[in-house]
Design a protein that fits this description.
Number of domains: 1
Oligomer: single chain
Order of helices and strands: HHEEEE
Strand content: 15-25%
Structural class: alpha+beta
Shape: flat
Largest sheet: 2 strands, antiparallel
Distance between the termini: 40 Å
Number of strands: 4
Mean pLDDT: 81
């Protein structure tokens, strides 16, 4: 059985040129550790604060004329989006 999908480490690929993703976003490509941490934070925030806040991952927002995509955005409760 191949267990490489279960590795908790981020592998760095040496490259002379940043990828299109990195150029567009101005940050490195998120890795496995980033994904685990973000997932765990989202779950905990939802469990403890869903009645008071709307918690959204990877949403595009406008700030001072620029677009930003934070890993987690927390808003005052926005009501039902379903």
């Amino acid at each position: 059985m191949d267990t490489s999908a279960f590795c908790l480490c981020d592998e760095t690929l040496a490259s002379a040129q940043p990828s299109a993703y990195e150029m567009e976003r101005g940050k490195p490509i998120p890795g496995t550790i980033h994904a685990f941490v973000q997932k765990n934070l989202l779950v905990e925030l939802e469990i403890h604060f869903r009645q008071r806040f709307t918690i959204l991952p990877e949403i595009s927002i406008q700030t001072a004329g620029k677009t930003a995509v934070p890993g987690i955005a927390i808003y005052p409760r926005l009501g039902s989006l379903r």
